[in-house]
Structure formats: C-alpha cells, structure tokens
Amino acid sequence: MMTNLFSTFDPATSISASLNWTSTFIMLVILPYTFWMMPSRQSMVIKLIFNKLHQEFETLLSAKMKGMTILFISMFSFILMNNLMGLLPYVFTSSSHLVFTMTLAVPMWLSLMIFGWLNQTQNMFAHLIPEGSPPALMPFMVCIETISNIIRPGSLAVRLTANMIAGHLLMCLLGNSAASANMLLPMILGAQIILMLFEMAVAIIQAYVFSVLSTLYTSEVAYENAQQSPLSLSGL
C-alpha cells in the first residue's frame, strides 16, 4: 500500500541492505555473455545502432578526439538500459534519482573543466565572451557564461530525472484510478498502453539527449585545444 504518490521511487526495502540499486548494474553482469554467443539479429541491430551513434558523435568532435565516441556510446547504452528497465514491473527506477544522474554528469563536466583550464587557459577565458559582444556588456556576458557553465551538470541531471519521474507519476496515477474504475476501465487500460509506448520513446530520447549534450560540451571546451595541442581528451 503506497503512502503517497512518490513512494514509487523510494529505494528503501524491508531488508536491512537495499537491493534495489542492483538493478542498475544487473545488465552489466549479463552483457559479457553476448561475446561468447553466435552472432544473431539482435547483436547485428545493436552493432548497427552503435555505428550510427559513432558517426553522429564523430561529426561533433574534432579529429583528435574521435576516440571519445566510445565513452559517449557507453554512456548512452548505460542510461538507456536503466531507463528501459525502470519500465518493468517491480524494478527500481534508478534513473529517476539525482544520485544516479549527478554521478554521470558531474565527473564528466568536472574532468572537462579541469582539462580545459589547465591545458588551454587562454581559450577558456575567450569562451567566456561570445564573439561580437559589445564592450559595455562584456562584464555581464562573463557572469552569464560562467553561470551557464556551472549549471550544465545540474541541467543534464535534472532533465533526465524530471522526464523519468513525470512519466512514472502519470502511469502511477492511471494505475490507481483503474483500481476503482468500472465503466472507464477499458479506456484507462488503452491510455496506459499508449503511455507505456510513449515512455519507451522518452527513455530512448533522453539517453540520446544526455549523450549528445555531453558531446557538445566536450567539443566546446576542447575544440581549440585539439587543433593546437598534441594532447587529446581520449587520454582522460
């Protein structure tokens, strides 16, 4: 019996040690077995998706940072796995918690900031003032660009968390209303099926958006550095 609407996202269990977070990594245990199996249509589709993602991320990164596409494809796969598993019954939705999303966003953003400010300090200062800004607005542009850089990991994390929470709350509301409905039960079931399909699309889109925005932030920080310095972000 749910005490409130948000109890769906409660990670606590009746045992002393919570096992809900194990659903986040359960697919990582099963994944290595696919390398010992014969190629199938499923593996071919997954490889095709990874190749398309590699081509998409490669266009956003410079020539010396193409190796980072492996990092962003892995991030996409990990987020997508947890988003889709959260739609299964009695499976903990880890991607609806800021602990999960901030763990992905903050280390990525912090590593990019440290790398950029240590190796290309002049260009990092130049990025704080957009090209063509009036001299009178330059101090304000520096403040605005600084704040926008600081809130980037928070925007990535909150975007993913809010989208996953919103869909689950709608499904929870429809499920509670279906228990007391009589004549409207077929209509509510049809709405739940449509909402489930919509949430599957949201799970895929949010994983893609998170990975693409991380790629764009990487290209903005290290674009000039990739042209002038022999170092590349693939060494991080």
UniProtKB/TrEMBL annotation:
<dbReference type="InterPro" id="IPR000568">
    <property type="entry name" value="ATP_synth_F0_asu"/>
</dbReference>
<protein>
    <recommendedName>
        <fullName>ATP synthase subunit a</fullName>
    </recommendedName>
</protein>
<feature type="transmembrane region" description="Helical">
    <location>
        <begin position="98"/>
        <end position="118"/>
    </location>
</feature>
<keyword id="KW-0812">Transmembrane</keyword>
<keyword id="KW-0813">Transport</keyword>
<dbReference type="Pfam" id="PF00119">
    <property type="entry name" value="ATP-synt_A"/>
</dbReference>
<comment type="similarity">
    <text>Belongs to the ATPase A chain family.</text>
</comment>
<dbReference type="InterPro" id="IPR023011">
    <property type="entry name" value="ATP_synth_F0_asu_AS"/>
</dbReference>
<feature type="transmembrane region" description="Helical">
    <location>
        <begin position="156"/>
        <end position="178"/>
    </location>
</feature>
<keyword id="KW-0406">Ion transport</keyword>
<keyword id="KW-0496">Mitochondrion</keyword>
<dbReference type="GO" id="GO:0005743">
    <property type="term" value="C:mitochondrial inner membrane"/>
</dbReference>
<keyword id="KW-0375">Hydrogen ion transport</keyword>
<keyword id="KW-1133">Transmembrane helix</keyword>
<feature type="transmembrane region" description="Helical">
    <location>
        <begin position="70"/>
        <end position="92"/>
    </location>
</feature>
<feature type="transmembrane region" description="Helical">
    <location>
        <begin position="184"/>
        <end position="210"/>
    </location>
</feature>
<dbReference type="GO" id="GO:0045259">
    <property type="term" value="C:proton-transporting ATP synthase complex"/>
</dbReference>
<feature type="transmembrane region" description="Helical">
    <location>
        <begin position="20"/>
        <end position="38"/>
    </location>
</feature>
<dbReference type="InterPro" id="IPR045083">
    <property type="entry name" value="ATP_synth_F0_asu_bact/mt"/>
</dbReference>
<keyword id="KW-0138">CF(0)</keyword>
<keyword id="KW-0066">ATP synthesis</keyword>
<dbReference type="GO" id="GO:0046933">
    <property type="term" value="F:proton-transporting ATP synthase activity, rotational mechanism"/>
</dbReference>
<keyword id="KW-0472">Membrane</keyword>
<dbReference type="InterPro" id="IPR035908">
    <property type="entry name" value="F0_ATP_A_sf"/>
</dbReference>
